[in-house]
Amino acid sequence: MGKQYETVIGLEVHVELATRTKIFCSCSTEFGKAPNTHTCPVCTGMPGALPVLNKQVVEYAMAIGLATNCEITKVCKFDRKNYFYPDNPQNYQISQLYLPIARNGYVEIETGGTKKKVRIHEMHMEEDAGKLIHDEWDDTSLVDYNRSGVPLVEIVSEPDMRSADEVIAYLEKLRMIIQYLGASDCKLQEGSMRADVNLSVREAGAEEFGTRTEMKNLNSFKAIARAIEGERERQIELLEEGKAVVQETRRWDDNKESSYAMRSKEDAQDYRYFPEPDLVPIVISGEWIEQIRARQPELQTEKMERYKKEFDIPEYDAKIITSSKHMADIFEAASAVCGKPKKVSNWLMVETLRLLKDRGMEPEEISFSPENLAKLVNLTESRAINSSVAKEVFEKIFAQDIDPEIYVEEHGLKTVNDEGALEEVIRKVIADNPKAAKDYHSGKEKALGALVGQTMKAMKGKADPGLVNRKLREMI
Ligand code: ADP
Ligand code: ZN
Ligand code: MG
Predict the structure, then answer these.
(1) pTM of the model as a whole
(2) Which ligand is nearest the CA of 7, by number?
């Protein structure tokens, strides 16, 4: 009792690449289409059909490899991984075992202010399988081959992570790099990014790793964090009872918050890997690598530095905005339209982050157009609307991407700039609230606030509070 345990975690991350067509045929990769409409003899494993490699897959894989500090393998090739499963029509998967396209990289993560490198053992290219749909009513299983042959890279880390926080930081970092490269949208919910968690525990201070299990079916960061906690507890309990952890693959059930064994861990030799005879080796020249390197877009760190210099955005804000490629794109587009980057950044940092949090959304799910945010900035800067109206209008933009100019017009939300009308209202407010006026004159500053409130109310919120304040002081 009272022993301390350390958790050791390594990840295998599958990412679907954003190519238009599949890895070995010209079928579309589009998600969510009618079952079996994006198929052909190649991706349904018909005898005699031959694969032809999609060059874009190699280029995306190289781009990811370079951005994660890997060495690119100059002569790499595909291997067959043989196994039977109904979602795998060829009875083998074309993958890479012996010479994966990239090796020996790392990404840097930061948790609780501490930086750390997570090493990448290798990254290989392979094809995705089809999808089985189990129909419990009919007691049948159906198969959809639209996903069969969609290109994947699998990124295998070293067992360098020690907590769920580090795992999430690693996944967020990978996702950010890949999204910046435009190589995948990396949506965990839709399965375009999938992480298998290999986890073992060992007594604190021990040299040797413990026996690990591999967990599958994790489709959100929250599920991953819960699965890590659950599996850590399960393994510690076994060890405390003097039992052994069995090396196996387990399936996490996030509703039950527990996992169950799927199969005992298979070895490479179980798959009878052999070199894929239908594809030639890929020779990657230094020149090709340099071409890809030269084409790499601006990644987060560079973007952050540029925002600080070019737009005078504080470090913290620049970091948050660039942590999502999507948010950074909105920032740049909106700033280009209105020319007021600091104001745009404020709307993102305050109201956008607040609404995302309230609604449990990710920055990737922001759906308003930069043009509408830019228009809102212009409306507030020209004092056409005041700040409380602006907040109200922004909520509409956030939820429905409305055009703020039209919305403000239609709902009569424009600030009334007619000083005569304002003065009239103020005169009436002062007359109706003699006590407040008297209190103000006897030095009670606070009394003015009540009068400002009354005036704003009488103006239906459409006055400029600064102007109301000034006028009141003049007229009282
Ligand atoms: P296999 O050859 O069985 O696929 P690998 O050695 O390639 O196994 O490792 C697969 C994944 O498991 C890698 O991400 C690796 O970091 C991780 N891993 C390996 N050993 C351990 C361990 N003892 N504890 C946790 N993770 C591990
Ligand atoms: Zn096809
Ligand atoms: Mg392996």
Answers:
(1) 0.84
(2) 1
